[in-house]
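**Fold in tokens:**
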Amino acid sequence: MTRALVAGTITYLTASLNTVSYLYRHSTSASTARTYSTAEKRWFAVTDKIGTDPRMQTVPDEWHHRTDELRTTTITWEEACIVIFVASALQQTKPLAPRTISTYLSGVRKYLENEGVDTRFMNKSQYIRNTKQGLAQYYQAYTNQTTGDRERMPVTADM
């Protein structure tokens, strides 16, 4: 006899997995969950625009026939996806602050790790570090900060 789901009842497995899902969703504070949710939404939008899935497994043909300025560099597909996400901060009505994009990157990293993607490349990538630094410099110029303001500008540890 199979363990068929009888109308109106939930099996122990389903009930347990629902409990795990609840605990998993509440493993971070509400504000962090909101921030990560925003990061995921932005990540999904960016990956959709560049023609890949959120796990970066689909590589569009355009990647293999590139004409961009980075085509002769050693940037990997995964690094390219992340730096495009960072650069998307400039496409907002008002550019995102460096601290904000770093927080969003943490949300994307958490999403990727939860999906089983190896994110160690994010720690080692000079392309990601330089793009984040370029965003910080652009933001300083955009907001017309003085030298003193730049010295006080909050920068996260991973920048």
